[in-house]
Amino acid sequence: xxxxxxxxxxxxxxxxxxxxxxxxxxxxxxxxxxxxxxxxxxxxxxxxxxxxxxxxxxxxxxxxxxxxxxxxxxxxxxxxxxxxxxxxxxxxxxxxxxxxxxxxxxxxxxxxxxxxxxxxxxxxxxxxxxxxxxxxxxxxxxxxxxxxxxxxxxxxxxxxxxxxxxxxxxxxxxxxxxxxxxxxxxxxxxxxxxxxxxxxxxxxxxxxxxxxxxxxxxxxxxxxxxxxxxxxxxxxxxxxxxxxxxxxxxxxxxxxxxxxxxxxxxxxxxxxxxxxxxxxxxxxxxxxxxxxxxxxxxxxxxxxxxxxxxxxxxxxxxxxxxxxxxxxxxxxxxxxxxxxxxxxxxxxxxxxxxxxxxxxxxxxxxxxxxxxxxxxxxxxxxxxxxxxxxxxxxxxxxxxxxxxxxxxxxxxxxxxxxxxxxxxxxxxxxxxxxxxxxxxxxxxxxxxxxxxxxxxxxxxxxxxxxxxxxxxxxxxxxxxxxx
Length: 483
Description:
The chain has helices at residues 5-15, 47-59, 70-77, 89-96, 144-152, 186-197, 207-214, 231-240, 268-271, 274-303, 311-320, 328-348, 354-371, 377-391, 396-405, 407-416, 418-434; strands at residues 22-28, 35-41, 83-86, 101-105, 111-114, 160-167, 173-180, 226-228, 243-247, 253-256, 436-437, 440-441. It is an alpha+beta fold.
């Protein structure tokens, strides 16, 4: 840029000739004799702010030309909070395309960039994917500033730090790494920052992109970063010494590191009394086991080990399977695939008809399959129990992992019976024990064994007993409270 307004405007129009939504508005600075122009994007910039606090203020100047300096414009004319300088057109055009307004004035070799972005944000609503009976009803939205404010509102904490990073090579987005300065392990914070800085793609559309690009093992079926819409879950994780990642444009925050037990925990475990919280948590672990292994157990019992079934039940099952033309594996696959298709169809259909279609479709298909002799009634019960158990898992991503893994033990059971199911389970345990999330063992606190962390593992001990933060996180301050 130089100090000639006409030359600058000519260069700006050349740079923005392919941007039909960019507006260049020339004007005169009152009766001073100086000319200027503002450049903004129609629809992204706040027109009311531009009209009232920029154009009106600049066009109402009543001083001589010599008095109009850059400092005078910045400190006495423009009543705006966000104001920076740019020495070149290439420096301010990207900011203009994100909603800012550039001000160029004849005689000034630098442009003033004014923050005028108009953000239409969704209201703070209850999270859809993580509903609770008892607990806060606030959830994140797509505006990053709203999400950081929600974390701040959970209590006055001067140690809550936000580290800002831009991700995306072509379409840059703001990303925040949140942590508690006097709790979180500095090595953990630096490792998260290092992995985020290594993200090298054109555009980071959603936090799921970040999750996949920073995880330890992309071949593992288990999520190694926890996603959530709930600010209370995030602030609780930060208080334990974990790190959160928030991305502009998505209501889902990421929590790292994560362990398998965290995926089966709900914030409601802590809002209810410890006995109720423990019971609900144990039910979820049991439901996860049922969701993973029940179809495989059915296949192994029917195909290899009918002697392990009580006699009366075995006779009933054999009678029900009379006329079924398929093996136990094939009929189990038919029903499981049908249930998965119905579940996916119910999610993609419009909300008013989605749930009804899923329930009615399941009942109709199950009943029709039994009447046609394709599957046995006992298998319909097994598949129904499996589907209901998978709904009890509070984390959607963890539920997907178990649904995907469910088919592997079914083939193992068809090939080797109960031995195949046990072999699959042992291999799965070995994988979970070997897996890590940002250096923290995924199976913690079971492996390696840490007795103090078991107070918040299968059981949720009373609050007064949980005075220590998890040892696995190597936090600066190990005590949750000081007595």
